Amino acid sequence: MHINLTKQILKEGRVALGCIQGHLRSAEIPRMFASAGLDWIFIDTEHGSFTPETLQDLIRSSVSESITPIVRVADFQYSLVSRALDMGAQGIILPRVESATVLEEAISWIKFPPEGQRGFGLTPPQIGYTKASFEEITTHTNENTLVVFQIESQAALEQADDLISVPGVDAVMIGPADLSISLGVAGQMEHPKLVDAILGVIETCVKYDRFPSIQIRDPVLGKTWIQRGMKLVGCGQAQLILWNAIQAMANDLKKAREGE
Description:
eight-stranded parallel β-barrel
């Protein structure tokens, strides 16, 4: 059965690096991310446009390349969580969390009994064609599924202690764009109000033995947040990286064509 390599990296005290794939419907992207040395891929179905068939292709491609597929679901629905996991996702990101009660229920969908209430729907491809008992499969899957929830609002910050202490949480991810908007400092990623709020979340994560996490757009900020204590770090999005590279190439070539 498949080992969650990103969860292993985090437990060893190291930083796990990832990137978002949210719109480009190509199974080649996880292969590129893996070859570049990234540890996990943030497959976004909240803002992304993937059909279930495409999502399955991305997850299978990720697993085959030993890069951890972590899926952000669009909403708090059992079917969205269970389908992603049954496709082979090795982690779930729960967005816009503001209630410990809702978070507890969502985590129960991620875990098989006795830790939760996830229904058994795994077939040979999802367990790497390993011969194993139901108990072996459910125990292994519970241990190797990464549970992440996002803090993206002032309301979530006010309940951070209650949320982060919920049993079953592995990592707490800051959504800095939405959080900056909620705090009244939209897009100001180094504003003291935002920075202080995020540092407070990191401190609470340490208190409850959770992995602090963040998804940012700028690698310079990424390095800064690693230095500040972030452990699960996502940087950039596939489509934006491609667009920036295309713009740079086109600008260089246009200058050459014009004799500059």
